[in-house]
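User: My instructor asked us to take a sequence, write out its structure as tokens, and then describe one feature of it. I'm not sure where to start. Here is the sequence I was given:
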Amino acid sequence: MIAQFFIAFRDYLIEVLPFLAIGLLLSGLIHEFVPGGLVERHLGGRGIKPLL
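Assistant: Let's start with the prediction itself. The structure tokens for your sequence are:
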């Protein structure tokens, strides 16, 4: 039963890993090249608008 869990976990990890790597790469590029003030201006504030 535990072996089946680890086999399923490994298979799931293999499926998810490329998307996780792409997401980390994109977030790193955004962090490096997009100014913090721009992000704060569009995502900062109150209400529902920054969430959307």
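For the description part of your assignment, you could build on this observation: The chain has a mean pLDDT of 90. Try explaining in your own words what that tells you about the chain.
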